[in-house]
Amino acid sequence: MDQEDLRRLEDAVGALERPTWAMRIVNLVGMPIEAATRLLPARAGAIVSRATNTAVRKALVAAVSTMGRRHRGAPSRWLHRVAVVGSGGVGGFFGLPGLAVELPISTVIMLRAIADIARSEGEDVGSVEGQLACVQVFALGGPGPADDASETAYYAVRVALAKALTEAAEHIAARGISEEGAPVVLRLIARIAARFNVVVSEKVAAQAVPVVGAATGAAINLLFVNTFQRTAWGHFVVRRLERTHGPEVIRSAYEAIARRRGYLRG
Fold it and tell me: Where are the domains of the chain?
């Protein structure tokens, strides 16, 4: 790799491995997420789970049905941020029950932002692989699936989703998304939703803190979309470099950077 590609990879490692979401929420709200979670009603878990599953399903359908190849230039990050903050504010007005309506809308808006970032890094979002790579970002916004010292959080998630992504891509390429109830597609939705649920639960918990006013609630929504835009940027930088230099070369360099920065042990 030349120095420019190496610098971009180093920035991507920081975007994908640094635990920014939870810590920024703690700094904003002033209490740990675990403590904020206790303020939620008993039914919150079920509501969040249903909302995240619906949101990921709608994002997948939107990705496969409406995302095209046309390049629109530099990604319009603030336009999408304003839209998500606005929809989050409307949903927040109705409290926890409003999440079922607001989250799918916000997620599809964020998908558009993710697709813009993907295009800017040369991803073919008109292909099923590129479309699923956009939806995959919603599984990358939280901690790794396990505290495995031998893998970075980013690659641990990619490995965990690899089989489900491949099976869903083959099914969609052959039959389209009209059969979104197919087991392989449902399996992918469930895997991504389970990880997206972690970040959404933290967001809902932070908004449940009594001292959080409208302005702070809007700031939480801004952090929410900003987290996924930052994650998307890192993800598609890595994918672009993999296309140029090969997956194994980039993974090896990524892990070396992560180890040097303390994100990977061993």
Answer: 3-260
